[in-house]
Design brief:
globular, FAD/NAD(P)-binding domain, Enolase-like, domain 1
């Protein structure tokens, strides 16, 4: 065999896997058809959060986009092919496909390893809207290359990307219309979280249209929905992702994919072909950079039989929508917990001192606990989910993630002394409700919506 492990794909999952290979001192080859870093570095998290920050800082469009380019270049420089090689990973910059369970083909070369990891990521999907192919459509892969600020912007898709970019471009001075086919924005989140984000966007001037499916698009970028027509200078489509599996020859190997084309794996991220693993967006599990990084490390460790392996658990992975306020979530929602014997501790930010001092009272902390298998509700049971809507929700959720990952009792959150007045102090205050009344609030049974 030429190597111990071959990784196909240089995005977050591939880089996570390469690090696991380095830690295990394995002979690892990474094959990437683009610069390492992938979607997150060049077209995802890094540019989008930079643009949001620049817009909130009051920068004009040219300066904001210059900051985006500078930030991307700075972060990309830390994960180049040369950097990976210096750290001990072999790198080939080219396309690859699978010849069989232990062989890939790159150009005219056949390269072997007993374990192969597919980490080719995903790409934006475009909905089948009549006329969409006839207009200039922006996705996250092209949006940050705009040279001129559009006076008007239509955004199709009210998920995290759509909401974040609606805020950013509105703050930059663009008139934004945001379309979502569901009854509310961020439909995967708690209803109250969606309501707060929608109200925040409307207060900035975003024209939010829910229950609005685009029926067709005309050549002048005129969007027609149930509520009429809107003409825009630019159009961003943010309606989901599809896996990058073209050219891998998966069909020839008989590797199983689901009805959406994502590669199926078991909990250890091994595919239907023994010795072939998959991680990141190509699996369709969770489309987040940190999830891909975790999957890459878990899959590589399992493949090599060394280091940090085991099962990958989506319920232990938090995610954040970086609007203002932020929406952070981990595990189940209250409605999902209603059938699990869940109990809910709820704290509105209006009853949290740090939110009052900062004049940021729109939001809440919701912790969801359930009985442990053997000890039941002793010491509060276990946390199975949380949603936080607050200016620093993305930082606050990590404490909950640690508790869930470690399998600790809910009471640890209530016991831990938090500095006052911090945003994290609200976590302790909310957790106390599982053990008695805290300023008039107690935990209650979870309710189905």
């Amino acid at each position: 065999m030429d190597h111990d492990l071959i990784i196909i794909g240089g995005g977050a999952a591939g880089l996570g896997a390469a690090r696991a290979g380095q830690w295990s001192k394995a002979d690892t080859l990474l094959v990437t058809d683009g610069p390492p870093g992938g979607d997150c570095t060049f077209t995802g998290c890094v540019p989008s959060k930079t643009l949001l920050s620049a817009a909130r800082d009051g920068l004009a469009f040219p300066e904001a986009m210059a900051r985006v380019r500078s930030t991307v270049e700075r972060i990309a420089a830390t994960e180049t092919s040369d950097v990976l090689r210096e750290l001990g990973t072999h790198v080939i910059e080219d396309r690859a496909y699978l010849a069989n369970h232990d062989t890939i083909v790159v150009g005219e070369r056949r390269i072997t390893a007993p374990r192969i990891l597919i980490a080719t990521g995903g790409r934006p999907s475009l909905p089948p809207i009549p006329g969409l192919d006839d207009v200039d459509v922006q996705t996250n892969e092209t949006l940050f290359d705009l040279k001129h600020q559009p006076a008007t912007l239509g955004i199709v898709g009210g998920g995290p990307i759509g909401c974040e970019m609606a805020e950013a471009f509105t703050r930059l001075g663009t008139s934004v219309t945001l379309f979502e086919t569901a009854t509310r924005l961020l439909p995967r989140e708690e209803f109250e979280a969606s309501s707060i984000v929608e109200a925040a966007l409307r207060s900035l001037g975003v024209d939010v249209q829910t229950k609005a499916s685009i029926q067709r698009v005309d050549g002048a970028i005129r969007l027609h929905s149930e509520f009429g027509s809107v003409e825009v200078e630019a159009l961003l489509v943010a309606t989901g992702r599809v896996p990058n599996t073209g050219g891998l020859a998966l069909d020839q190997l008989g590797l199983k994919v689901n009805d959406r084309g994502f590669i199926e794996t078991d909990a250890r991220l091994e595919t239907s072909i023994r010795g072939v693993y998959a991680a990141g967006d190509v699996t369709g599990k969770l489309p987040f950079t940190h999830a891909a990084d975790e999957m890459g490390r878990v899959a590589a460790s399992n493949a090599l039989g060394k280091g940090y392996g085991g099962r990958y658990r989506t319920d232990h992975t938090p995610w954040v929508t970086f609007t203002m306020p932020e929406v952070a979530r981990i595990g189940v929602t209250e409605s999902e917990a209603a059938t699990m014997g869940g109990r809910v501790a709820y704290l509105p930010l209006s009853e949290m001192d740090r939110a009052i001092t900062d004049g940021a009272e729109e939001g809440f902390i919701k912790l969801i606990a359930a009985p442990k298998r053997l000890t039941r509700r002793l010491f509060g049971g276990r946390i199975i989910g949380a949603t936080i809507v607050a200016p620093r929700a993305g930082e606050m959720i990590n404490e909950v993630a640690l508790l869930m990952r470690s399998g600790s009792f809910t009471g640890r959150l209530a016991q831990t002394v938090h500095a006052y007045p911090t945003w994290g102090f609200g976590i302790q205050k909310a957790a106390g409700q599982f053990f008695g009344s805290v300023e008039g609030r107690e935990a209650r049974p979870a309710r189905a919506s």
